[in-house]
Amino acid sequence: MGFSIALIVFSALLMMLVLMHKGKGGGLSDMFGGGMQSSVGGSSVAERNLDRITIVVGLLWFACIVVLGILMKLDS
């Protein structure tokens, strides 16, 4: 039960973090005004930290899925 709740929390957090990323252009972000920003050249510290946090949350999300899969297999 605890891993199911953790999976829901990590899914919502991962969705939020991905949506917070700056659009790189050429995708759906241009449709919503993301392409109007000028490129400064290089990533800011905040953007790099956001990348790192997104990777860590993504790995935790993946680990929750693996653990839930193992637990479901052991239960049956």
TrEMBL record:
Entries under InterPro entries matching the protein: SecG
Q: What keyword terms does UniProt attach to this protein?
A: Cell membrane, Membrane, Protein transport, Translocation, Transmembrane, Transmembrane helix, Transport
Q: How does the record classify its membrane topology?
A: Multi-pass membrane protein
Pfam families recorded = SecG
Instruction: Tell me the domain of life.
Output: Bacteria
Q: Where are the transmembrane segments?
A: 53-72
What is the scientific name of the source organism?
Answer: Streptomyces ochraceiscleroticus
Organism ancestry: Bacteria, Bacillati, Actinomycetota, Actinomycetes, Kitasatosporales
Spell out the family assignment given in the record's similarity comment. Answer: Belongs to the SecG family.
Q: What is this protein's function per UniProt?
A: Involved in protein export. Participates in an early event of protein translocation.
Can you say what this protein is called? Protein-export membrane protein SecG
Q: Where in the cell is it found?
A: Cell membrane
Primary location group: membrane
